[in-house]
Amino acid sequence: MRIIGGQFKGHRFTPPAKKWPTRPTTDISKEGLYNILANRIDFEDIKFLDLFGGTGNHCYECISRGCTDATYVDKFPGCVAFAKQMAEKLDIEAYLTIHRMNVFTFIKRCEEQYDYIFAGPPYPLQNIPEIPDLILDQGMIADQGFLVLEHNPQVDMSKHSHLIEQRNYGQTIFSFFGSQPQ
Questions:
Q1: Angle formed by the axes of helices 77-90 and 57-64, to 10°?
Q2: Percent of the residues in the chain that have a pLDDT greater than 90, as a whole number
Q3: Residue 76 gets which letter from DSSP?
Q4: d(CA 49, CA 34)
């Protein structure tokens, strides 16, 4: 894996492979996503939330591009330890808040709003279609903000009232949701 753009562009990192509970976003689909995002947001001005953070890949990418307020959430101790290690290695601890907890518990307790939320749940998770509504019901998306949900073609989000657009990268689909119905 690598950081695509910004201050740490080209930096490669490899999480431990032994019993690693993640499915990281591929470099090709991540590059496509961040090309889209670069035309929509000013990373220096956003508050970012990474749900099902795994390797921390999206946090590093946003911070590399200028974000100074990123939050990472994952329940797996190995993932959280890796994210902390990477934050130290990249010297970005001041910009990254790390929560080791269940994402659904975090959402229920969240009182913050974010400009950009990325959710990359495990594809076998049964309640992926509920994630946008949980986030919307909690009021977590700031005005003019959005959620990007990564999922596979088996999950159909095309009829969701807040769906802005979808981008397809083979077995990876990014569904964009806004705070207001479309």
A1: 20
A2: 85
A3: -
A4: 15
Residues 13, 18, 21, CA angle at the centre, nearest 5°? 80
Give the structural domain span for 111: 54-178
DSSP 121-161: --TT-TTGGGHHHHHHHTT-EEEEEEEEEEE-TTS--TT-T
Q: What is the dihedral of CA 177, 167, 115, 65, to 10 degrees?
A: 170
What's the total number of domains in the chain?
Answer: 1
Q: Are 109 and 140 in contact (CB under 8 A)?
A: no
Q: What are the tens digits of pLDDT across the range 18-36?
A: 666 666 677 788 999 999 9
Handedness of CA 114, 116, 121, 125 (dihedral sign): positive
pLDDT of residue 124: 86
Q: Which two tokens stand for residue 91?
A: 């010297």
| Strand partners for 99 | 73
Output the domain CATH number for residue 166. Answer: 3.40.50.150
Cβ neighbors of 155 (< 8 A, separation 6 or more) are 128, 129, 173
- Give the residue among 73, 67, 118 at the shortest CA–CA distance from 90: 67
CA distance linking residue 31 with residue 25, whole number of Å:
10
Asked if residue 18 is part of any domain, the answer here is no
Q: Is 176 exposed, middle or buried (0-12, 13-18, 19+ CB in 10 A)?
A: buried
